[in-house]
Amino acid sequence: MSGQVEGLVAIVTGGASGIGAAIARRLHEEGAQVAVLDRDPSGADERFAAFTADVSDRASVDAAVAGVAERFGRIDIVINNAGIGAQGDVAANDDDEWARVLSINVTGIARVTSAALPWLRRSPAAAVCNTASIASTTGLPQRALYSASKGAVSALTRAMAADHLREGIRVNAVNPGTADTPWVGRLLDSAADPAAERAALNARQPHGRLVSADEVAGAVLYLVSPASGSTTGTFIEVDGGMAALR
Ligand code: NAD
Q1: Complex-level ipTM beyond the 0.90 threshold
Q2: Whole-model pTM?
Q3: Domain enclosing residue 223, as ranges
Q4: Nearest to residue 159, comparing CAs of 199, 201, 130, 195?
Q5: How many Å is the Cα radius of gyration of the chain?
Q6: Which residues, judged by CB distance below 6 Å to any ligand atom, belong to the binding site of ligand 1?
Q7: Catalytic-residue membership of 222
């Protein structure tokens, strides 16, 4: 039996760690050939083609996407997942930090998708999925810049869906809740008592535990597979029920 994305070629940005790595694995299990674009691809699964690219640098993105096309001869799926965090209220970060985070989390999506667009237009099954966040729709304390960036990811997802509807390119997004990835692991490790902090973080989630990266990957697989062929400009919340409680 063939997989849900059999024979398709997928780019996964930030695919060397966490949610991106889980998405890359899931797409590969379902028959896709996977290219990971990451500023540090050293952790990428060796079954994937790994390209060093910083999504905040257009030249490196263009070179990596051209490399994927040269290697596989097609690009069908783009997963815009690379992203970084930022802490604090609206006054906490200077202009350089605002520009850096927005360039990675938002403009990075524009750079990667633009480079892949000529290939997506030729695909019979073109799909883009962006990793947004519960921060897109929920007022999270001390996450002003990060929330602004993820809110922009939501708006960009809808705009891209509208622009490319008639070209047969679907664009959707996932909104993960706090997920158990190396990113969150690093935050926990910086606490005085990481185990106690992890227990407290689990307890703060609506369903009593962190979201798993594989759960996010399952939603992404659905959004880029033919099973969701009439779905575009939408979001799947993978947040343990947080959106339901708003
Ligand atoms: P992670 O730090 O474990 O992995 C992020 C990956 O992105 C790394 O491999 C890193 O090298 C890569 N990356 C970072 N900046 C890059 C750049 N400029 N160019 C190319 N690659 C870059 O993080 P994660 O927790 O897996 O997060 C992945 C995505 O999920 C992010 O967009 C994040 O905002 C989003 N998200 C995470 C959570 C969470 O709780 N972990 C919740 C909601 C949304």
Answers
A1: yes
A2: 0.98
A3: 9-179+212-240
A4: 130
A5: 17
A6: 13-14, 16-20, 38-40, 53-56, 81-84, 104, 131, 133, 176, 178-179, 181-184
A7: no
